[in-house]
Amino acid sequence: MDFRLSEDDLELKQMARDFADKRLYPRAEEFDEKGITPRELIDEAGELGYLGFTAPEEYGGMELSMVAFGGVLEEICGACAGFGILVSVHNSLCCGIIAKFGSEHLKKNYLTRMVTGEWVGSYCVTEPDAGTDLASIKTTAEDKGDHYLINGTKTFVTSGGLAGVFIVFAKTDPEAGHKGLSCFVVEPGWEGVTLGKSEKKCGMKASDTREVSFADVKVPKENLLGDLGKGFRMAVTILNSGRLGVSFQSIGIAQAALDEAVKYSKERQQFGQPIANFQAIQFKIADMATRLDASRLLAYRAAQLKDLGEPCHREASMAKLFCSQSANYIVNEALQIHGGYGYMKEYPVERYFRDARLTEIYEGTTEAQRMVISRDILKD
């Protein structure tokens, strides 16, 4: 496999870098402090095609590769990881699941508005008592003849307060375990949908995260996504894209932290010379850069397999596991190189340090990735 980006992919990556440098990075600290994602930036991202990157062209998307999308995510997440996760979840999980499993009605009615950024997508799967164990989901969708009636609560919903579309997983057969799980497209304006308060988080503060409740929400039959009782399989399938999104987000954060560490080490003087001259700092930078390169190779390998339509379940989990752990290692070392200044909010490594921590938790914890990888190897 050739993991070098094509000229077209590099051009897209550079365009994303320009957008990130001009529109995201200068205000990233403000977004973090206020916990906001400005609507005008979502509109700009939509105009540039970043919210319909991999969606089919016939519905207004760009229909580009996961490899190309990875390069774009690197740049956006390196500037503002909180905004980057909106772009990632919207594309890889929300647009992705409708494009892959949705009826023509759902694609025309929802996907066409999502690819422009008019409607942001939110993925509603996690519950207060159900995370990795999807079979324990308690939200129900009762068949009422001409509609389903959804009741339940979802938590940690990314972009929950910005969403125009909710992808909701609910039990249509509560006694069937994971085989009774189905998926629905729900609009936030429907009666019975209630948004909780925006969560106050350690990092990724620019990302709107909140609880969403459903009380006797009437969902038209045509808003069933995919086949009845196939929600678990759909969730597992589409999670490969989500895990790749977090992998590239981790790479973006790590690259930004490494760049700051290199810059600071050349400027900071101790004992009459830049600290970059000291072997202790040089070895840190060498280890950081090596882990970053290894992360890219794992992530782009998995992305290329996905683009080729080949199985990538193990590879996506390997990428997510290693990239997220490496990002946390790299930002920790970057902060250490900055010394006391790295602990201050005046330096961006403080934000990278907080943002990186979540990458080992969402879209499947580090422990869950090890389960996926080991089971796949032992099965073989």
Radius of gyration (Å): 21 Å
Largest sheet: 4 strands, mixed
Low-confidence stretches: none
Mean pLDDT: 96
Helix and strand string, N-terminal first?
Answer: HHHHHHEEEEEEEEHEEHHHH
CATH fold title of the largest domain: Butyryl-CoA Dehydrogenase, subunit A, domain 3
Major beta sheet, strand line-up: 1-4-5-8
Number of individual domains = 3
Total helical segments: 11
Count of extended strands? 10
How much of the residues is beta strand, in percent?
15-25%
- Identify the CATH class of the largest domain: Mainly Alpha
CATH architecture of the largest domain: Up-down Bundle
CATH superfamily of the largest domain: Butyryl-CoA Dehydrogenase, subunit A, domain 3
User: Outline, from the CA principal axes?
Assistant: globular
Helix % is: 40-55%
Structural class: alpha+beta
Q: CA-to-CA gap between the ends?
A: 22 Å
Structure summary:
The chain is an alpha+beta fold and 380 residues long. It contains eleven helices and ten strands.
Q: Which characteristics define this entry?
A:
Butyryl-CoA Dehydrogenase, subunit A, domain 3; 380 residues; Butyryl-Coa Dehydrogenase, subunit A, domain 1; alpha+beta; 3 domains; globular; 4-stranded mixed sheet; 10 strands; 4-stranded antiparallel sheet; Butyryl-CoA Dehydrogenase, subunit A, domain 2; single chain
Q: Can you describe what's shown?
A:
It is a single chain. The protein is of the alpha+beta class and 380 residues long. The chain folds into three domains: 113 residues, Butyryl-Coa Dehydrogenase, subunit A, domain 1, CATH 1.10.540.10; 109 residues, Beta Barrel (Butyryl-CoA Dehydrogenase, subunit A, domain 2); 148 residues, Butyryl-CoA Dehydrogenase, subunit A, domain 3 (Up-down Bundle), CATH 1.20.140. The protein has eleven helices and ten strands. The strands form three sheets. The chain has a four-stranded mixed sheet, with helices on one face. Strands 2-3-7-6 form a four-stranded antiparallel sheet, covered by helices on one side. A two-stranded antiparallel sheet has the order 9-10.
